[in-house]
Amino acid sequence: MSRTIQLAHSPDADDIFMYYAIKFGWVDTKEYFFENIGLDIETLNVEALKGTYDVSAISFGMYPLIKEEYALLRTAVSFGEGYGPKLIRRKEKKLKRNFKVALSGKYTTNAMLFRIFYPEARPVYMDFLEIEKAVVDGEVDAGVLIHESILDFDESLEVEKEIWDIWVELAGEGLPLPLGGMAIRRSLPLNVAIDIENILVEGVKVANDKKEELCAKLEKDNLVRISDKMLKKYLDMYASDESVELSELQLKALDTLYDIGFKHGLWECPIKTEDYLIPKEYCELRTQ
């Protein structure tokens, strides 16, 4: 008898890419049936605060707020390496200290870092697809672009600040920028959680191994907003071999992110990422 698992992810290209190898039946899902739910990342963050879905994409910057209800998964992770979200403004615009800025959501990682770096700015939260137009129309003084928007935006706009540069100033050199990952509800039995993590790891591996075939199918079925060379460029940035399983360097980056948040009063206690992953030693104990 199959067990249904709600798998919530955003509709941006890297999430679609990492999960659809499973959706297309290219991965053995054992007795599990995955119900794909596509919502924008801030909606997923808010729903994670409510404990809505079994497995959900989240912004790394909000994980400490749900750490008692959800464990972090090691796979389907997105980090920036010299790139990331961009703070953009109109070319002729000079930003004041209290400039009005459009952000993609209160709980996103980029919003966390932005608010720390620009404490006097006045955030307005909106769907990330609306941010570019809001800046062009003068509705806001600036906006932080995320996802595919960072690759191609209106020629009247220019980059004021890279979130990557903010990260380096706050965290120091040598660490990738943590952006998003996956969390799994703690109420699920541990053996089920381990199965799901392993299936998702395999799904990201297969997606990377069959990147050209999968990209072609995603484009043909109109499942992604960008295509051709732009899609491949974006996936090379955010859905690559580095997305398969958290590395030691990525864990260090997450620990640094959470230390920055703690020092700025965003949560009550420091967090060590390793303590909130699914314990792998359980598998070893079961086979002894």
Automatic annotation (TrEMBL):
Q: In which pathway does it act?
A: Quinol/quinone metabolism; menaquinone biosynthesis
Q: Which InterPro entries match?
A: Menaquinone_biosynth (IPR003773), MqnD (IPR030869)
**Reaction catalysis annotation:** cyclic dehypoxanthinylfutalosinate = 1,4-dihydroxy-6-naphthoate + dihydroxyacetone
Q: Which GO BP terms sit in this record?
A: menaquinone biosynthetic process
| Pfam families named among the record's database cross-references | VitK2_biosynth (PF02621)
Superkingdom field? Bacteria
- The catalytic residues are H147
What EC number(s) does its UniProt record assign? 4.1.99.29
Question: Looking at the keywords, is Lyase present?
Answer: yes
Going by the UniProt record, its keywords in alphabetical order are: Ligase, Lyase, Menaquinone biosynthesis
Q: What does this protein do?
A: Catalyzes the conversion of cyclic dehypoxanthine futalosine (cyclic DHFL) into 1,4-dihydroxy-6-naphthoate, a step in the biosynthesis of menaquinone (MK, vitamin K2).
Q: Which family does it belong to?
A: Belongs to the MqnA/MqnD family. MqnD subfamily.
Per its record, how is this protein called by name? 1,4-dihydroxy-6-naphtoate synthase
Q: Which organism is it from?
A: Sulfurovum lithotrophicum
Question: Organism classification, top ranks?
Answer: Bacteria, Pseudomonadati, Campylobacterota, Epsilonproteobacteria, Campylobacterales
